[in-house]
Design goal:
- Strand 13 (305-312) and strand 14 (317-324) form a beta hairpin.
- The longest helix has 18 residues, at 208-225.
- The chain has helices spanning 16-32, 34-47, 67-72, 117-123, 188-200, 208-225, 228-244, 248-258, 279-288, 300-303, 347-355, 373-381, 411-419, 428-434, 455-464; strands spanning 3-4, 10-11, 55-61, 76-77, 88-91, 100-103, 108-112, 147-148, 155-163, 166-173, 267-273, 292-298, 305-312, 317-324, 366-370, 392-393, 397-401, 406-407, 436-437, 440-446.
- The chain folds into 2 domains: 3-173, 2,3-Dihydroxybiphenyl 1,2-Dioxygenase, domain 1 (Roll), CATH 3.10.180; 190-464, 2,3-Dihydroxybiphenyl 1,2-Dioxygenase, domain 1.
- It is of the alpha+beta class.
- Helix 5 (188-200) runs parallel beside helix 7 (228-244) and helix 6 packs parallel to helix 9 (279-288).
- 34% of the residues lie in helices and 21% in strands.
- It has an 8-stranded mixed β-sheet. Strands 12-13-14-11-15-20-17-16 form an 8-stranded mixed β-sheet. It has a two-stranded antiparallel sheet with strand order 1-2.
Length: 469
């Protein structure tokens, strides 16, 4: 579990024993299931990602596990989650570990989490348990034991390979945290309409605050007609698409992962930057979609930045939201209290001044993907994408940005930034010619279940990516 100290900081623990338990189970599974083993090898070689980071959940025969040992590993039984009859669900909420299901059956089952199930089956179809007697187009005619769910539904799952009592499954979720067909089908047309609206939403406004207020009202309207977790799922699928369209590192890594039909199922966190005056609106938008505030960061007088971490508990989406704050503001809830515009702006404020609010035309500052750290550097380098110096290098957390492309700056924004004194006039021509550092892909490797962030490390990379440097 993560505990909170008097300052509201979260103390996320490491769980080496729990990790060893899960890794042993996955290792034994890979030995038994050839398809899973080959897919695991391709994940590492072709995408620089680890099979472990793609696991949605694991099902273990309950006769092989001592329930008391699960409790010792900080896994607690989760109530109120839809699951097969006779099955118990155990979750370690203080970690990034996937759920463990204890089943009365005799098979071990591992489910992967591609972003789109159909794409994954298309790209790994050589392993899929196709039924030769039935039309591949008729998904309803497949036996319930092999496939369940509906296109764009809350939960789809398909049996990929069954070997020696070891079943490899693939699952796609849309705002659902259960493990069986929910049977309570949502309005798929409404979900698709929301997703399309998020894709095509207006991002450029004369006043940024007008844009955030418009988006807030849109989200409130969608949530009223649907559910928070469904709106959040649609919103962030659209956000990742917009970010990726303007980030070469993201394009390359996504293309590699799409060779196996994986998509961004390995996302670690989504990072946004905001101006001080609009920060509370940004947080309100996320909380309207069901995000809950986690730890806050304050980098001190010299750092000049703060951040609120938020998490959507059903979707499993995490947000790291940056903002410039002053030392005097560290003792109040800057995420929910209004902050006024400040004469002196830091790295975050300058990025927003040049590119716009992250939630609008600026787009996400970065998307963090879980990878095998060493493998990813070489893999991306082979495609002309260079990694920056790591800003976290611990046994339990490694992080690094890949180098960002410079993005053109709108002339009006640039002139306003110069007129406000945030950039020296003699530097205007430099930014006009080559633009300013835009967005990044972040490579993240987490071990021992560590769920948090390191404030000092984040300060290093925020300073290193200041447009004035």
């Amino acid at each position: 579990m993560a505990t909170q100290d008097d300052s509201g900081s979260y103390d996320w623990k490491i769980h080496p024993q729990a990790e060893a338990f899960l890794e042993l189970r996955i290792s034994d599974f890979l030995k038994q299931n050839r398809a899973a083993r080959e897919i695991s090898d391709m994940m590492l070689k072709e995408t620089s990602t680890r099979f472990f980071d793609w696991v949605d959940h694991i099902v273990i025969p309950n006769e092989t596990v001592n329930v008391e040992s699960m409790k010792e590993l900080q896994f607690k039984e989760a109530k109120g989650i839809k699951k097969p009859r006779g099955t118990k669900v155990y979750i370690n909420n203080g970690s990034i570990f996937f759920p463990v299901l204890l089943s009365p059956g005799s098979h071990t089952k591992v489910a992967l989490k591609p972003e789109l199930l159909g794409h994954f089956l298309q790209m790994t179809g050589i392993y899929y348990n196709w039924n030769d007697d039935l039309s591949a187009l008729d998904e309803q005619s497949r036996p319930n034991s092999d496939y369940f769910g509906r296109s764009l539904g809350l939960y789809q799952s398909a049996l990929v390979s069954d070997e020696d009592q070891s079943e490899l499954w693939a699952s796609e979720r849309r705002g659902f945290n259960g493990f069986v067909d929910p049977r309570q089908h949502h309005d798929r047309e409404e979900y698709l309409s929301n997703y399309q609206d998020f894709l095509m939403r207006r991002r450029h406004f004369s006043r940024d605050r007008d844009g955030l207020e418009t988006l807030l009202e849109t989200v409130k309207l969608f949530v009223k007609a649907s559910r928070q977790e469904l709106v959040a799922d649609a919103f962030f699928r659209a956000e990742r698409q917009f970010w990726q369209s303007r980030d070469r590192g993201g394009m390359v890594q996504r293309a590699l992962q799409d060779r196996l039909g994986l998509g961004w199922g390995n996302h670690d966190h989504h990072a946004y930057r905001s101006s001080r005056e609009n920060y509370n609106l940004l947080i309100e938008i996320f909380e309207t979609m069901g995000f809950e505030a986690r730890e806050q960061f304050f980098a001190g007088k010299q750092g000049g930045w703060g951040a609120q971490v938020l998490e959507q508990p059903i979707c499993g989406i995490t947000i790291f939201a940056d903002v410039d704050i002053t030392e005097s503001e560290r003792d109040f809830d800057f995420a929910h209290e209004e902050m006024t515009e400040c004469k002196d702006i830091g790295t975050v404020g300058l990025w927003v001044a040049l590119h716009g609010e992250s939630i609008l035309q600026g787009g996400m500052h970065h998307l963090a993907a879980r990878v095998d750290f060493g493998q990813a550097e070489a893999g991306l380098m082979n495609h002309g994408v260079m990694r920056m110096r790591p800003f976290s290098d611990f046994k339990f957390l490694k992080q690094a940005f890949v180098e960002s492309e410079r993005r053109p700056v709108e002339l009006t924004r640039l002139r306003n930034t110069v007129d406000s004194g945030h950039i020296r006039p003699e530097r205007q021509g430099f930014f006009e010619q080559i633009g300013a550092i835009g967005s990044h892909l972040e490579l993240t490797e987490r071990r021992q279940g560590f769920k948090g962030f390191n404030q000092n490390s984040v300060s290093v990379i925020i300073h290193a990516t200041d447009p004035r440097m």
